[in-house]
Every structure is written in structure tokens, then in C-alpha cells.
């Protein structure tokens, strides 16, 4: 569907910083850029407005960045949801409902994230970090939590993209990822939830830096 294509491409451009916070977009300009008709672009902009990535501005829209208080709120929601998904993933693992191949994939992305972060390869570390957290949410088996997290992650990423910088405490971030992975793999729900929550809140409040936009880290 053309609208879905337009929405996906626009979302990528916004999350990638091509259209940064404050940028004003019009249907005509976006349609020309994407080489699409205005109808799917119009619907895509409406969908992105519903997702909180843009807001109406005259005859177009403006890319939105959360204010500091709203960003704090977003991190609190993210912490609660990631604690929930980590707990659910650990429960499902304890009950034998997660395929070994899925756990291997999670370990693999964790290792790749750690390597990219340690080497300062932000272009690789940012998407890998998000893939790691998304993989855990997928293992939880709760579609609503995953969809809500996607929206929160998007808003945080857009709002913190300008502060992207190498992580100051990459070893600490990697250790938290390892603790989270171990708690899920060994089927310890309460520990998984506690580690996930602390990890997200550290990302917001400490001076270290998780691989990603300052959301993840200027504390990540």
C-alpha cells in the first residue's frame, strides 16, 4: 500500500535526522522528495502525527521534539514497559516457550551491539542497540507493549538525535545488557524486570551514554 510505503520512508528520514526537529514539511515537498503522489503522503503525515512525530503547522507539519519534562515522562513509560517485556520474556523462557534460535539471535545482537559501542561505531551501534531492546520486547509476546514501545522509542530518538555522541560508559551499558540477557536466558523474571528498569532510568539520568541519541545517553 502506497500510504504504508510513504509512512515508512518518512519515518526513516525523521529518525535518521534528515528531517530534524523543527523542520517544516509540506505535502508537495515530501511528495516530490519521495516521488509519490500527494494522497499517500497526506495519509502518511496524518499517521505520523498520530504517532507523535509531527504536528500540524499551517498547510504542512513540523517535526516534533519532546520538551525536557515530556522526555522524562517518555523515559518513565519506557522503563515501565521494558521492565514488563523483560519480565514476560523471562517467564516465557522459564516455561520453555522461547525457541533456542531466538535466544541465540538475542545473544548475537547483544554481542554486536557491545562491539560497535566499544569501537565507537555509532552508525552501527544505534540501530543495533534498538534492535536488542526490540528483540526482548518481541520475545515477551505482548503485541500491544511492543507497539507502544515503538512509539515511545521513536519519540525519544527524534528528541535526542542532536546529542548523539560516543558513549562515555560503554562498559557499564554493556554490563547491563549482559545482566539483562542472563536474567532472561536463565528465566528470572523479577531480576529481568529490575535490570531493565534500572538500565532505562540510568540511560536518562547518568552522565554515561548508551549507544544512541542522547536519549540513550547524555544522560543515553
Topology:
Blueprint: H1 2-15, E1 24-26, H2 27-34, H3 38-50, E2 54-57, E3 60-63, H4 68-94, H5 100-118, H6 122-140, H7 143-160, H8 170-185, H9 189-205
Antiparallel strand pairs: 1-3, 2-3
Helix pairs in contact: 1-3, 2-3, 4-6, 4-7, 4-8, 4-9, 5-6, 5-8, 6-7, 8-9
Descriptive overview:
- It is elongated, with a radius of gyration of 18 Å.
- The protein has 2 domains: 2-63, Orthogonal Bundle (Arc Repressor Mutant, subunit A); 68-216, Four Helix Bundle (Hemerythrin (Met), subunit A), CATH 1.20.120.
- Helix content is 69%, strand content 5%.
- The chain is built from 9 helices and 3 strands; from the N terminus they run H-E-H-H-E-E-H-H-H-H-H-H.
- A hairpin with a 2-residue loop joins strand 2 and strand 3 (60-63).
- The chain has a 3-stranded antiparallel β-sheet.
- The protein is mainly alpha-helical.
Question: What is the overall number of helices?
Answer: 9
Any guess at the CATH architecture of the largest domain?
Answer: Up-down Bundle
Q: Classify the helix fraction into a percent range.
A: 55-70%
Mean pLDDT: 89
Q: Which sequence of SSEs, written as H and E, runs from N to C?
A: HEHHEEHHHHHH
Query: Which consecutive residue ranges, at least 5 long each, have pLDDT under 50?
Result: 206-220
For the biggest sheet, the summary is: 3 strands, antiparallel
CATH class designation of the largest domain: Mainly Alpha
Tell me the overall shape: elongated
CA-to-CA gap between the ends? 36 Å
Tell me the count of domains. 2
Amino acid at each position: 500500500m502506497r500510504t504504508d510505503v510513504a509512512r515508512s520512508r518518512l519515518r526513516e528520514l525523521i529518525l535518521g535526522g534528515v528531517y530534524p526537529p523543527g523542520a517544516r514539511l509540506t505535502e508537495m515537498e515530501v511528495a516530490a522528495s519521495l516521488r509519490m503522489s500527494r494522497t499517500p503522503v497526506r495519509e502518511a503525515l496524518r499517521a505520523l502525527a498520530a504517532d507523535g512525530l509531527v504536528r500540524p503547522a499551517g498547510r504542512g507539519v513540523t517535526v516534533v521534539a519532546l520538551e525536557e519534562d515530556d522526555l522524562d515522562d517518555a523515559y518513565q513509560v519506557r522503563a515501565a514497559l521494558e521492565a514488563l517485556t523483560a519480565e514476560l520474556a523471562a517467564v516465557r523462557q522459564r516455561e520453555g516457550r522461547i525457541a533456542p534460535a531466538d535466544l541465540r539471535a538475542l545473544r548475537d545482537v547483544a554481542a554486536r551491539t557491545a562491539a560497535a559501542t566499544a569501537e565507537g561505531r555509532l552508525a552501527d551501534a544505534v540501530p543495533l542497540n534498538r534492535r536488542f531492546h526490540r528483540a526482548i520486547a518481541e520475545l515477551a509476546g505482548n503485541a500491544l507493549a511492543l507497539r507502544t514501545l515503538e512509539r515511545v522509542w521513536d519519540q525519544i530518538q527524534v528528541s535526542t538525535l542532536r546529542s548523539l555522541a560516543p558513549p562515555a560508559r560503554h562498559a557499564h551499558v554493556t554490563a547491563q545488557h549482559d545482566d539483562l540477557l542472563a536474567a532472561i536466558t536463565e528465566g528470572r523474571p523479577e531480576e529481568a524486570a529490575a535490570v531493565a528498569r534500572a538500565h532505562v532510568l540510568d540511560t536518562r539520568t547518568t552522565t554515561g551514554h548508551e549507544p544512541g541519541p542522547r536519549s540513550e545517553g547524555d544522560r543515553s
